[in-house]
Structure formats: structure tokens, C-alpha cells
Amino acid sequence: MSDNEDELNGYTIIKEGETEILMHSNNTVFFNKAQVNNRDMSIALLRTYIQKRKEEYASMSRGKVNTLTRIIAATPSSSSMDETNIVDSEERVDGLEVTSNKFDHVRMNESVDDSKKILIKGRGEPKPPKVLEALAASGLRALRYALEVDGLGSVVALDSDEASIKACKRNIKFNGSAASSKIEVHHVDSRVYMLTNPKEFDVVDLDPYGSPSIFLDSAVQSVTDGGILMCTATDMAVLCGGNGEVCYSKYGSYPLKGKYCHEMALRILLACIESHAIRYKRYIVPILSVHMDFYIRVFVRIFTSPGAVKNTPLKLSYVYQCVGCDSFHLQSVGRTVYKNKSVRHAPGFGPVVPQDCKDCGKKFNMGGPIWSAPMHDQEWVLSALENVKAMRERYPAYEKILAVLTTISEELHDVPLFLSLHNLSATLKCTSPSAVIFRSAVINAGYRISGTHVNPLGLKTDAPMEVIWDIMRCWVKIHPVKNQPPDQSGSAILSKEPILQANLSRAFSSLSKSQVKKIARFLPNPERHWGPKVRAGRQISSKHVSLLGHDAVNALVGHEKANGEEHEPHNRDEQIEDAVEPKRQKTIDECNAQS
């Protein structure tokens, strides 16, 4: 047997994109095949970032703009901005008034002074972006960045686990000199490394096993002005309301159980990142926020501006969710007051709801605060979509990320959270109208509506809940329901006559462009057991069948026995931990069934 064959004994070669890595069967280093979607999406955004960065520098060189980006103090500009809340002739309130599920951006200062802009240092071509992968594990992500993203500078891979560092170095060597020349590896606590290298990296990638909360404070300090923080969270049971008190301790927000729980998870994570950034006079501008498979991932740019930080309360809201029906309402944390020529910040007006729901008479649960400003940048989404289409052969998960980006590009970005048509019908115990009929009724009433990438049954709309329930009442008049007990929420809602007479005729724009073109937007998993995997270092046994499948578990256990790799737990804590099967992350349907 040759030396190379001896070195590869017990290892499997895994190819993803243009990268190959060696993985051992003993599970000492974490690897999850399902994360190919995550890595492909990150590469698409990295390529878009490099392109946008060059365009910004080119504009500076031509003298057409004098800023890296035009950052309005509160939120990215929106076509739906309007002035609201006239207090008196001398004082005008400019803020975010959120009533029902309608999110109204209010016009901020049109003239942004230089203190609220990020100036570019230097002209011409920018230096290649420097990337930090804070939790490298096998090094696959760092390798793909280095080998597949053109125009990228050095990639720094960190990990505090010695086995992971050895695996990372092995895989870098396995991919040749091209990888070795661009990637440097450090065995260090990533939090300490980021704290000791402030504003050093153009891109920081956090992809932990579980919650990223302990890394956020140091991460927001290590990103350069205008750089990108890419962050993943896989603790969906916590973020979706399964353990609200744990979520509050980690992220500073209380989640609510609802059909929109996965979007709320995204908004909780964004609010948490913002809360860490503002401590250092920095703030975030989200460019893409996605829920895929069993995790969420956000991409945000980070800027420094003491003035813009004051507007953070305008971008956060509390959520009031009725316990009896699907009505939810948002209340902004802060507002801006203009008096004469002076501007000051004040707490938001409230409460936006009475003690009892005016639709069904039940009580409200309150959650948040969450990020209620847009969580996507349409220009970036469209640019990433074009890049993915143009480089189809370089994305192993092309179909999946194309579907996700296409759906996101058609969302209403200025409407936080969404409704479920099936939930509305379940509350009234009526036959559900088709999505086309319901969307048509909303459009005919003069409001906007779209789908959401988070849930195939979700509908985002700026129509208030009064209009939504009036549409459902008109539908029930055509499709009667059986009598219900008077204490039911549906009975209370149907006991009122509709104020709006809904027009249920087919509207021209009731289908999105992708629906008209029959583009797949929600794809099934490519194989069974496509989901979270066992934490690295944990011995794989028959207890992990639900995560890996019978065939995979039998093969791994058999291989360990053949090589004499079975081991006893090192201590009592590990023995207890292995005695309990790891909790499987809930699917969308399971999470919704509990809401």
C-alpha cells in the first residue's frame, strides 16, 4: 500500500463545488452536507459584494458620488414613505407608525449630512476583500471562498478545537498550492481574535453549531466600515418560541409562536446584531435575510455613525399577537419629533392595541422587540440573482438558491411578518379561498400583497387586519359555515357585518411573475434525513437514527467496531448526554402545528 493510501485510510473524499476535503468517519470534525445551500448563498453574496464594492469605488473615482453608500439615518429609502402623526402646528412627528400588520415608513431627513455618510478612503481599485471565517471546522467554507470567489484577498480560518484545526490544515494541503497561498489558519478563540483585530476584515462569517449570540459582540467590532457580517443561527426551537426565556437570555427578544415564527426568528437575530453594534456607535443595513432548511442566515453591512445610531429605536418594534385569532399588531419602540428646525428622539406612542382584541375579544401576547425595518435590499437581491443565473455551473445547489432568491425578490420588503390563509380559515372554520382569490380581494381593496420565502402558505400584505377579516366575512357569506359556540373566536368575528364589501373577482396582478412563468419556488429536500446532524465529537450510535438514517448509522457503527474505535464516555456528563437522543429541529409544518 502506498504512502498516500495509508494517509487516506479511514477518510472519505467529499467534493463540493471546486473543492475536495477529507472527512473521517469518527465524527471528530463537524460536516453537514445540507449546508451546501448555506455555502452557495454565501458565495453568491460574496461575489455580489465584490462587484458592488468596485462600483462604489469607481463612482468615487469619477467624482459622481462622495460616499461609499447613501445611508439615511433610519432605514433604506422606500417608495411607500409618507408623513404621518401631525401633533400640532409647531411639532411634527416623523417615525414608524405600525398599526395592525401594516408597516408605514415615514419620511426621514432628505438631506443627510456628511456625519451620516461613510467616506471612502482612496480612489481607484479597492484592495481585495479580506475574509474571516470564525468557526472553520473542516475548512470547507474557507476553501470554497478562496478557490471559487474571484477577486477575493486572504481568508483567515479560526477554530478553538485542535482536531478541527488539524482537519482544516489537512484539507488545505489536499487542495494544493492555490489554497495554501490564500488561507491562513489559527488555533485560537475566535472571540479573542476578533476583539484584538478591530475593523480588520471586510467580511466576517459566523456559522456556529447552535446560537451565534456569544460571538456577535466581537464580530461587529472586527468588520470594516461598509463590510459584511454573515451570520447563521440553527437554534430554531429557541428562536421560534419553544423556549422563550432562553431566547430572551441569548438574543434580548421574546419570541411568539405563530405561522410567521421563522421570519420573526430572522428579525430577532437582526435586532440582536444591531443591539451589539450600537454599543460601539455602529449600525447595520441588512442586504439579505433567509430561512432555509433548518436554520436562518442573515447578511448585513456594518457602518459607523454616532448620528445614525440614534435612529435604531425607529427600526425596532414590539409585536402584539392575539391568542384567539391571527390578528397581530406592531408598536414602534421610538419616534422622531421635528419642532421648528430642531430634531429630537422620543419613545414611541402606545399602546397600539386595547386589552382585548377588537376582532375576537381575546387577550394579546406581547413579543419582541424585533427588527421591523426591511430585512432585504432589493438591489442586492437582484444582483445576486443575476450572478447566480450567469454562473449556474459553479453552484452545486443552484436550483435551491435560485428558488429562494427569486421568491425574496418578489416579497414586500417593507411589511414585517405575514399571515397564513389556512390559519385564517381555521379560525373561522370555513373552506379556505384559493390564494389567487384572496390576493385578488386584497388588491381590489387597494392594498399590496405578496408571498414570502419563509412559508409557501404565507402572505405579506399592508392591509390592516380589519380589511383582512372583512374579506373573510364576505367569503363566508358565499360559502356558509356551521354554527359555532359563541365563545369561539370565529363566532365573534363572524357576528360583525363587513364594512368593506370585498371584490373577489380575479385581479391582473394576483399572481407573481415567477408563478406566471411557473418557476419553482419551494423545492423538496434532495434526499432523506436532510437536516441537522450530530454535534462533532459525539459518538454516533443507534440513538441517532432520526438524524442520520438507519443505513448511515449502521455503516458508521460497523466501521468503528471494525477499527476498534469504540470508546467509553470520558465522564458522567458525557454519558448522560449520550443517553438522550439529540433533539431534532422541528420542520416548518411541525412548528406551525404547535402555533
TrEMBL record:
<keyword id="KW-0949">S-adenosyl-L-methionine</keyword>
<keyword id="KW-0819">tRNA processing</keyword>
<feature type="region of interest" description="Disordered">
    <location>
        <begin position="559"/>
        <end position="595"/>
    </location>
</feature>
<keyword id="KW-0808">Transferase</keyword>
<dbReference type="InterPro" id="IPR042296">
    <property type="entry name" value="tRNA_met_Trm1_C"/>
</dbReference>
<protein>
    <recommendedName>
        <fullName>tRNA (guanine(26)-N(2))-dimethyltransferase</fullName>
        <ecNumber>2.1.1.216</ecNumber>
    </recommendedName>
</protein>
<keyword id="KW-0820">tRNA-binding</keyword>
<dbReference type="Pfam" id="PF02005">
    <property type="entry name" value="TRM"/>
</dbReference>
<keyword id="KW-0694">RNA-binding</keyword>
<dbReference type="InterPro" id="IPR002905">
    <property type="entry name" value="Trm1"/>
</dbReference>
<feature type="compositionally biased region" description="Basic and acidic residues">
    <location>
        <begin position="559"/>
        <end position="589"/>
    </location>
</feature>
<dbReference type="InterPro" id="IPR029063">
    <property type="entry name" value="SAM-dependent_MTases_sf"/>
</dbReference>
<keyword id="KW-0489">Methyltransferase</keyword>
<comment type="similarity">
    <text>Belongs to the class I-like SAM-binding methyltransferase superfamily. Trm1 family.</text>
</comment>
